Amino acid sequence: MDVEAIRCQLCSQLPSQLVDELLAAHEEAKSAFYLGGLRLTEVEGGRFCESAFRILEYITTDEFTPIGMQLNSDGLIRQLAQLPAREWSDSIRLHIPRSLRVMYDIRNKRDAAHLADGIDPNIQDSTLVCSLCDWVLAELIRLNHDIPPDEASEIVDGIVERRAPIVQDFEGFLKVLDPQLGASDYCLVLLYECGSRGANFEQLSEWIHPKMRSNLRRTLNRLVNDLAFVHEREGRYSITRAGQLDIESRQLLEPC
After folding, report:
1. CATH number of domain containing 219
2. More confident site: 207 or 153
3. CA 173, CA 205: separation in Å to the nearest integer?
4. Residue 4 near residue 20, CB atoms below 8 Å
5. Domain of residue 53, residue span
6. Which one of 64, 142, 208, 234 is CB 3.0 to 4.6 Å from 58, fit for a cystine?
7. In a domain? residue 255
8. pLDDT at 176 over 90
9. Chosen domain end from 128, 159, 190
10. One domain for residues 192 and 83
């Protein structure tokens, strides 16, 4: 299920303005995280919270604080906690609000959006923000569409594709913008850009630097078998989580 399908389903139950803000903030937070933009990840996490808090307002009162007006998040958290447990799920009353509170505090009190105590945005904070964004979005999907938690989580995993700015798409031809990359890294950034659809040997052979073509099979075998950075099935190659983390950690995604 793609992001537009998710949007349509959520908009059938919730105000489209809030859904659009929620999904946009989720996508920006995750994309920034993949590219190493830790501060932006946390800032977008705060924006995600503001949308999600308003969605909780709407679910429980049929009204919400207009976007652009100050949101009383502390008052809303107390109000939600006092809802009758027999009428409202614990996710609405407790779990989602408390998760949003954690994200909000990281944005506001750990030197992400404001000068604070000198704590620079770090990978631990940003990882927590991304995980909580995913969990809250999955819960909202689950609650509004009566599906199991695992299915909601899989939907969320699929709606934000990792993107590699170092790769430019010319009508289906993927060109790597750093010709100095080695053959393995060249293949990895191409497969990173391909995402879940992957690429076959012929496509990779067309896209890589001509001098790398003669050893492409050996390069791919090493990535598949020795490093587990790539998975091959029925002639199609896809990057693994280990491969994604490797090139993200080495910051290979931005053009030089």
Report:
1. 1.10.10.10
2. 207
3. 11
4. no
5. 3-159
6. 64
7. no
8. yes
9. 159
10. no
Over residues 39-92, the pLDDT tens digits come to: 778 888 999 999 999 999 999 999 999 999 999 999 999 999 999 999 999 999
- Domain shared by 101 and 220, yes or no: no
End-to-end CA distance of the chain: 34
CB atoms within 10 A of CB 223: 24
> Burial of 117 by CB count in 10 Å (0-12 exposed, 13-18 middle, 19+ buried)?
exposed
- Counts of helices then strands in the chain (DSSP H, E): 12, 5
Q: What is the spatial distance between Cα 5 and Cα 89, in angstroms, rounded to a whole number?
A: 25
Instruction: Decide if pLDDT at 250 tops 60.
Output: yes
* 222 and 129 within one domain: no
Same domain, 175 and 245: yes
Percent of the chain with pLDDT over 90: 60
Q: Across residues 105-112, what is the average pLDDT?
A: 68
pLDDT-derived band at 182 (thresholds 50, 70, 90) equals very high
Separation CA 14–CA 178 (nearest Å):
44
- ∠ CA 213-246-35 to the nearest 5 degrees? 105
pTM check: above 0.85: no
Contact 49, 129 (CB under 8 A): no
Tokens 């299920």 — which residue? 1
Select from 159, 193, 222 the last residue of a domain: 159
Strand partners, 239: 230
Cβ-contact 129, 42 below 8 angstroms? yes
